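#structure-requests
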Amino acid sequence: MMSVQGQCVRDIASLMQVSDDYVRDVIQAFNGEGFDALNPKWSEGRPPAISPEVRERICLIAKTAPAEWGIAGMSTWSLKTLAEHLIAQGVVAAISREHLRRILRAGGVSWQTTTTWKASNDPHFIAKMRRILDLYDHPPADGRVICFDEFGPLNLMPRTGKRWRPQGSPARLRATYNRYHGVMHMIAALDLATGKLYYRSARASAGGSCCPSSRRCGHAGQKRSCT
């Protein structure tokens, strides 16, 4: 607009604080392209130092445990130890903890609490469960429903920690362990009329069901009561 108004290149450059050559380039581009010449020319910037393939590999390594790489003394990765491991394995030449954090976040890998799981190995579990639930909903008119529930085991339980995992998919630990020396079963019953609690205890072999122990406790063992 200043050029159309008749101002010279030197005056325009002095007013806009640019060089004379830049003013001539803008005027020449405007005469050839019109207002499109005034659109900003954005550069693409520096290409990423870590390729998408390497980023995917970093996320895969983060979802493993240090023990899988023969590293003892660590149960999970910290950003510092993971960065050092990636450099030692030749995955990257160098990487900062903040850059590593951004890569994991972009790859859907987050810091999550480990969960435990336990499932029945009885092939007829679903059928038995449905029969019990139906008995709750439709109790017999001429009898009683005695509820028997197995509580426990009261033992050393695995404690959940934290590790890098895909979002919404925490790592899972086995919620029990092998009992090579057997277990102790205690059968208890609450008398609602008197408020007394009766119980018997007996030893059982490891992995055995509590049902045989309940029958055994009904005939042997010491009977105790407490209020």
